[in-house]
Write a structure and sequence with these properties.
2 domains; mainly alpha; single chain; 71% helix
Amino acid sequence: MARILLFLLVFAALAVIILAVVSALGRAADSADAALRPIWGSKRGNVMAPTSFQKIAYVALLLVLLGVTSGLLGGL
C-alpha cells in the first residue's frame, strides 16, 4: 500500500512540474508574440515586415561582406 501511495505522490508531483513548465512556455510564447507585433505600420501576419530601407541595407551589407572576403575591398 505504501508503494502505491508513493507512486501516486511522485506521479502527482511530476504532473504539477510538467503543467508549470508548459504554462511558463505558453506565457513566454505569448509575450514573444506580443513583442513581434508592430505598433504601427504593416499588419501582415502581425509580424513586422521589412521596409525598403532595411532591404537595401541588407543587400549593401552582403556586397560589403562579399568584397571583404574576396579581397576586393581591404583584403590582405
